[in-house]
Amino acid sequence: MKTTKNIIGKDLLGFALLLLFLLLFIISDQLNDNVQLNSISSNWINVNTIFLSIVLEAIPFILLGVFVSSLIQVFVSEDRLQRFLPKNAIVALFPAAVLGAVLPLCECAIVPVVRRLIKKGMPLHVGVVFLVAAPILNPIVFASTYYAFRGPFYDTNTILFSRMGLAFVLSIIIGGILYAIFKNNSKQLRTDITQHQLGHVHTHDHHHSEKPSLMKRLKETLYHAVDEFFMMGKYLILGAFIASLFQTFLDRSLLESIGQNDYSSTIVMMAFAYLLSLCSEADAFVASTFAGQFTNMSIVGFLVYGPMLDLKNTFMLFAFFKARFVITFMITVTFVVFTAIIVLFGFIL
Questions:
Q1: Coil, strand or helix at 191
Q2: Beta-bridge mates of residue 189
Q3: pLDDT score, position 21
Q4: Rounded to an integer, what is the distance from CA 153 to the centroid of its chain?
Q5: What is the DSSP secondary structure assignment for residue 289, as one 8-state letter?
Q6: Is residue 66 within 8 Å of residue 229, measured between CB atoms?
Q7: Would residue 30 count as lying in a domain?
């Protein structure tokens, strides 16, 4: 009963946030034309403008991402993926990163997929490469990042290729570190998972004794897409709203003092990425609002760290994996991402 109430509560929150977005979108012109309201609360008009611009730019990529993700979820089996991976543990790291680049799954959707792969015999460290590579290294995220940072006000190539290059290299490094610590230890999976811990996540297996019909699989794809859209959409709207508040009300002098220091701004933006828990298909649109106030280094930190580790996928990791593995994974990702960004921008760019 409690689980059902929690799921209903999350769905109601998602619907409420979507209704809020639609309401603000419908009345935005009236708000902007109302001189008296503008004089009273111009800051809130600015919040509304920034909020709508982020959401409207991100929604097409969200829709594309959830449909492609759902097609893979339904039509591509885990066994088929494993055929492309070498048996050698170290050699498997590189093709695992390449294969992760063609799986447009967000950081929350990839967690149960990786768990299923490990249960079917995939080495733990290869699953880790999927876990951190797939949310960033795919054409949808590439396109959304390019679109969000295009124009004369952004250093598009630096941000875009730093994000993709770091994600590819760091996924291999993180996988190698976790291999050195845990080897191929699949015992890091939890065996006491309950439906309450899984919440709204799909965990059913698509391998049945009878192969489902094409119509049934297409219907299941639509169900996955709708479910993922509402799950991602509420985080996007919440993140866009917080970002618009942040941009409007935070003291500009404080923002400039934090944002122009390479180390402090990178730490702040990585923490911001963790707390906002944005979908990787949409996070670039939020990050682009900070360009000019934060350094390119810190923005890349936001774009690389958030899809690898955030608040919502932390809960999922603890639900699927043992605490020792999750804590080790979190420390490794945080240290490796921060160090790599400092090295890249401090000594190379």
A1: coil
A2: 321
A3: 65
A4: 25
A5: G
A6: yes
A7: no
Alpha-carbon distances, residue 205 vs 79, 116, 119, 202 (angstroms): 12, 8, 12, 9
Whether 28 is in a domain gets the answer: no
Other beta carbons within 10 Å of 43: 11
Is residue 41 domain-resident? no
Q: What is the pLDDT of residue 40?
A: 44
Q: Are the beta carbons of 164 and 304 closer than 8 angstroms?
A: no
Helix axes 2-33, 42-75, angle to 10 degrees: 130
Cα–Cα nearest to 194, from 10, 3, 322: 3
Instruction: Go through 73-102 and write b for each residue having 16 or more CB atoms within 10 A of its CB, e for each that does not.
Output: bbeeebeebeeebeeebeebbeebbebbbe
Furthest-apart CA pair in the chain: how many Å?
Answer: 69
pLDDT mean by block of 10 residues, the chain; 349 residues: 55 65 64 52 75 76 72 70 71 83 68 72 84 88 91 83 94 93 70 46 46 80 77 70 75 66 87 83 86 87 92 79 91 96 84
- The pTM score is 0.72
Structure tokens at 346: 């401090």
Q: What distance in Å separates the CA atoms of residue 209 and residue 238, rounded to the nearest whole number?
A: 42
Number of domains into which the chain is organized: 1
Task: Tell me which residue of 229, 241, 306 sits closest to 275, measured CA to CA.
Answer: 306
Residue type for 39, please? S
Q: Is residue 64 part of a domain?
A: yes
Residue 62: what residue type? Answer: I
**Alpha-carbon span 210 to 170, nearest angstrom:** 40
The gap between the terminal CA atoms of the chain, to the nearest Å, is 55
Q: How many CB atoms lie within 10 A of CB 9?
A: 10
- Cβ–Cβ under 8 Å, residues 104 and 69: yes
Q: Domain span at residue 267?
A: 58-348
Whose tokens are 């509420």? That residue is: 234
